[in-house]
Amino acid sequence: MSDPLTTSFGHIIRQRREAVGLSQEELGAKTNLSRNYIGMVERGETNPTLLVLHGLAKALNTTMRSLIDELETGTTDKKP
């Protein structure tokens, strides 16, 4: 079973990815991660490292801080 924190983070990544119009495959290409790994992040099945977080933020045209702030406040309706 996934941890609630990683699940919440995954929802944020999925929402941000969809908001900028990227597929999992496209986000994977921008971050040098596989589509499968992006899916695992979005489902909360893995806990990404700081380097992965940095790459995701950059590819999603946002900041690490913005992603973490959203995670901490629990607001997943923000725009990227």
Automatic annotation (TrEMBL):
<dbReference type="InterPro" id="IPR050807">
    <property type="entry name" value="TransReg_Diox_bact_type"/>
</dbReference>
<dbReference type="GO" id="GO:0005829">
    <property type="term" value="C:cytosol"/>
</dbReference>
<feature type="domain" description="HTH cro/C1-type">
    <location>
        <begin position="13"/>
        <end position="67"/>
    </location>
</feature>
<dbReference type="GO" id="GO:0003700">
    <property type="term" value="F:DNA-binding transcription factor activity"/>
</dbReference>
<protein>
    <recommendedName>
        <fullName>HTH cro/C1-type domain-containing protein</fullName>
    </recommendedName>
</protein>
<dbReference type="InterPro" id="IPR001387">
    <property type="entry name" value="Cro/C1-type_HTH"/>
</dbReference>
<keyword id="KW-0238">DNA-binding</keyword>
<dbReference type="Pfam" id="PF01381">
    <property type="entry name" value="HTH_3"/>
</dbReference>
<dbReference type="GO" id="GO:0003677">
    <property type="term" value="F:DNA binding"/>
</dbReference>
<dbReference type="InterPro" id="IPR010982">
    <property type="entry name" value="Lambda_DNA-bd_dom_sf"/>
</dbReference>
